[in-house]
Amino acid sequence: MRPAGDLVAVTERLLEQAALDALAIAHKAGKVAIGFSKVEAALAHDRLAGLVNAADAAADGARKLAGALRRRADGGEVPLIGVFTSMQLDLALGRSNVIHAALLAGPESDTFLARTARLDRFRAGPVPGTPEIGKSQGRKSAGAGVRDDGMTKHDK
């Protein structure tokens, strides 16, 4: 039996939708600050799990927020996500014209980050020197609450 010709495209779309669904859940849990000024305020005062810029965001706004992030003590540890379009973010967050968002620390944000990392790994393909799927190497994951398979302890 041969796989369907669009297997890769369907898989990518499902991984993308899983990440966006996790973003929607994080938003419902109050873990997403939306809009440039709210993101700036979150950068100044909150514990962040990540910073999201729409893939089609203007370079100026993304550059300003990245600069503010670098000035934070934990700036190097906060991931920047720029793989989703403004339209995708609009649909996930139930708002229009979403360009910038900050993920506040919490398990809901960890789930979104894990699913986004899984999507990135799928798009990048196999990395030379990494163990094959299903072969445990006994190493610890770098992400908080993220297992070696990209799942968080909250994923089912």
Polypeptide structure, described:
The chain is an alpha+beta fold and 156 residues long. The protein contains 5 helices and 4 strands. The protein has helices at 7-28, 36-45, 59-71, 86-93, 107-124, and strands at residues 32-34, 48-53, 80-81, 100-104. The chain has a 4-stranded mixed β-sheet, with helices on both faces. Strand 2 (48-53), helix 3 (59-71) and strand 3 form a beta-alpha-beta unit. Helix 2 (36-45) runs parallel beside helix 3 (59-71). Mean pLDDT is 84; it is low at 133-153.
What is the compact description of this entry?
This protein is of the alpha+beta class and 156 residues long.
Count every beta strand, where a strand is a DSSP E run of 2 or more residues: 4
**Chain-averaged pLDDT:** 84
Based on secondary structure, the structural category is: alpha+beta
Described by strand count, sense and barrel closure, the largest sheet is: 4 strands, mixed
Helix content: 40-55%
Strands of the biggest beta sheet: in what spatial order? 1-4-2-3
Return Rg in Å.
Answer: 16 Å
